């Protein structure tokens, strides 16, 4: 157990280190000169040079990387080019809305996907099954920003059931979370369906049926527990795809989270903010995956700690 | 694998293709894709108007007999822009996935075939890239490279590469101990020939499936980047940037958003359906 834990934590640290290498390398792909970006378009060459020195851009590459790495380790992701404050402060001020949206979105995904998948598996081959599978394909293929606009138009503008975007109480949260949840729900429905079908064909389920247990008891008490395991394993890996959607959906709904921050930084070419947000998201996902891997063996005793 | 089966049984038609054609959903995907491709290729002949010609006497008109899908905020014909936009979307999907296929294919073949420290190094890098969310890394790359068609393709291609590297490596590892590889090794076949003429054709099946699914993701990614203002720049029509322009006029001109959104949806759906159909056709055991 402890060995497995240590190994997984070490692995995650390795990936996080590689993440800092990739993010730092991205800065070098930048065709524009960061010093000039900070100094502004009309700055004289002397000013640009001074800014370059202040930012430490004239130091050798290895020294710069170590400085950057040291900063990241202390939670220092650099300063925004435009708003002269720390990127980490900017991120912290946007963290809560993003966490709310992420939780609500994942909840929607599961609430839509799991029952739909169970229903499809139980009605395998029937019209309900085919309908659900078609909808799940549609959900996966629907671009989240277009879906968001559609929800805004129909449910917020035409029917006036929800506010037209912005941040506030739960009624502001429903539409963006739904835009995120519809796509993921389709994905989970497909996994749940195939997982349920596989479990239902196993011997212990047949035994439970043979000893005369009622259908629903077999399905929900015996089969469901095991069929849910792949879903748990998926939530960790799915978060990566999910966070990509968060950027888009936040910008559509004017949700003041990290995604909107990223989008605003893109518009103003505020590179430290973009890279800071990317680094933070990667950290979040690595941690979520680690957590999923640690929880999984607790749920499924067949999985041995290695 | 697939080829050997075809030759030994020598049926009238390729069984993989036969299974693919008997899959209704895959067929629907194929038809949608064919229509989109025809629209893209023949856009100059099919478009009723120029995709970039502004017309200030016909701003934001709803769909009518003159403008079948309406006009946008500059009076441009939306149908014409969608037809030309299909070129951008399909080219973006195919070019970026080809890039990922070639790069990832080389990395995967080399890592899987040679093994050792090289394999370790390449796979750890791949793992690190996979730790980033696909779209977030594409956004970062595109933002850093600067907005343009080439940079969008490059960004999506690079982000898709680790997926192919992982897949090809796994398949190569599985093929390596097989007799034909060992026989070729014993015959002293050169490494390049070994990888490209012997190994590659035998792992094509799963690769084709991944190409189709990754193209769906790439088309969606291009549309998303363009929507965020990172992709193709105006006045070149792209479905994503059309939707971006539409968001300001949602209340009075919803058709500006509906049709490009529908186009993206259909293109992504088509590639997903084909990919899924191909997977079932190549591996009938998985068929439910």
Structural notes for this entry:
The complex is a heterodimer of chains A (306) and B (288). Chain A has 306 residues and is mostly helical. In chain A, 78% of the residues lie in helices and 0% in strands. The model of chain A has no long low-confidence stretch (mean pLDDT 82). Chain B has one domain: MetI-like (MetI-like fold, Orthogonal Bundle). Chain B contains 13 helices and no strands.
Short description:
Chain A: Pfam families: BPD_transp_1, BPD_transp_1_N. The complex is a heterodimer of chains A (306) and B (288). Chain A has 306 residues and is an all-alpha fold.
Gyration radius of chain A, in Å? 24 Å
Low-confidence stretches of chain A are none
CATH fold title of chain B: MetI-like fold
* SSE-based structural type of chain A: mainly alpha
The rough form of chain A would be described as flat
- Which structural class best describes the helix and strand composition of chain B? mainly alpha
Number of domain modules of chain B: 1
Question: What is the quaternary state of this protein?
Answer: heterodimer
Distance between the termini of chain A: 7 Å
Q: Kindly estimate the percentage of residues of chain A that lie in beta strands according to DSSP.
A: under 5%
Major sheet description of chain B: none
The DSSP helix count of chain A reads: 13
């Amino acid at each position: 157990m402890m060995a497995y834990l240590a190994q997984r934590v070490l692995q995650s640290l390795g990936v996080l280190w590689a993440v800092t290498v990739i993010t730092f390398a991205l800065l070098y792909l930048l065709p524009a000169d960061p010093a000039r970006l900070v100094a502004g378009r009309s700055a004289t060459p002397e000013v640009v040079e001074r800014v370059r020195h202040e930012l430490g851009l004239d130091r050798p590459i290895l020294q710069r990387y170590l400085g950057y790495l040291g900063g990241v380790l202390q939670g220092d992701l650099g300063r925004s080019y435009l708003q002269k404050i720390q990127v980490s402060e900017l991120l912290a001020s946007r963290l809560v809305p993003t966490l709310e949206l992420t939780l609500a979105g994942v909840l929607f995904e599961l609430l839509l996907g799991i029952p739909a998948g169970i229903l499809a598996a139980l009605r395998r081959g029937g019209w309900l099954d085919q309908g659900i599978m078609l909808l799940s394909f549609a959900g996966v293929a629907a671009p989240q920003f277009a879906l968001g606009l559609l929800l805004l138009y129909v449910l917020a503008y035409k029917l006036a059931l929800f506010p037209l975007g912005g941040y506030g109480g739960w009624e502001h949260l429903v539409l963006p979370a739904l835009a995120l949840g519809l796509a993921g729900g389709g994905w989970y429905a497909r996994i749940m369906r195939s997982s349920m079908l596989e479990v239902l064909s196993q011997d212990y389920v047949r035994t439970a049926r043979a000893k005369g247990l009622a259908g629903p008891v077999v399905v929900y008490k015996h089969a469901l527990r095991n069929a849910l395991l792949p879903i748990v394993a998926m939530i960790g890996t799915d978060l990566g795809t999910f966070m990509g959607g968060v950027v888009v959906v936040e910008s559509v709904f004017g949700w003041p989270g990290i995604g909107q921050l990223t989008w605003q930084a893109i518009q103003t070419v505020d590179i430290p903010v973009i890279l800071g947000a990317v680094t933070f998201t990667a950290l979040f996902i690595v941690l979520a995956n680690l957590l999923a891997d640690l929880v999984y063996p607790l749920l499924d005793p067949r999985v041995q700690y290695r | 694998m697939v080829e050997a089966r075809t030759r030994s049984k020598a049926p009238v038609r390729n069984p993989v293709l036969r299974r693919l054609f008997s899959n209704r959903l895959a067929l629907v995907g194929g038809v949608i894709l064919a229509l989109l491709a025809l629209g893209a290729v023949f856009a100059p002949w099919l478009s009723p108007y120029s995709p970039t010609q502004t017309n200030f006497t016909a701003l934001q008109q709803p769909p009518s007999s003159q403008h079948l899908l309406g006009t946008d905020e500059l009076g441009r014909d939306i149908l014409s822009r969608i037809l030309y936009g299909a070129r951008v979307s399909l080219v973006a999907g195919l070019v970026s996935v080809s890039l990922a296929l070639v790069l990832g294919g080389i990395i995967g073949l080399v890592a899987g075939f040679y093994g050792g420290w090289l394999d370790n190094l390449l796979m750890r890098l791949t793992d690190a890239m996979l730790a980033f969310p696909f779209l977030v890394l594409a956004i970062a790359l595109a933002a850093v490279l600067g907005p343009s068609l080439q940079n969008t393709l490059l960004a999506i291609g690079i982000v898709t590469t680790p997926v192919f590297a992982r897949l090809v490596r796994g398949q190569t590892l599985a093929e390596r101990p097989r007799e034909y590889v060992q026989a070729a090794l014993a015959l002293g076949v050169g490494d390049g020939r070994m990888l490209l003429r012997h190994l590659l054709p035998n792992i094509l099946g799963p690769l084709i499936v991944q190409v189709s699914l990754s193209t769906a993701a790439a088309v969606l990614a291009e549309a998303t980047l363009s929507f965020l203002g990172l992709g193709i720049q105006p006045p070149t029509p792209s479905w994503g940037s059309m939707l971006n322009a539409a968001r300001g006029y949602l209340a009075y001109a919803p058709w500006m958003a509906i049709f490009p959104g529908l186009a993206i949806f259909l293109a992504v759906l088509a590639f997903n359906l084909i990919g899924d159909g191909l997977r079932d056709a190549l591996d009938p055991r998985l068929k439910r």
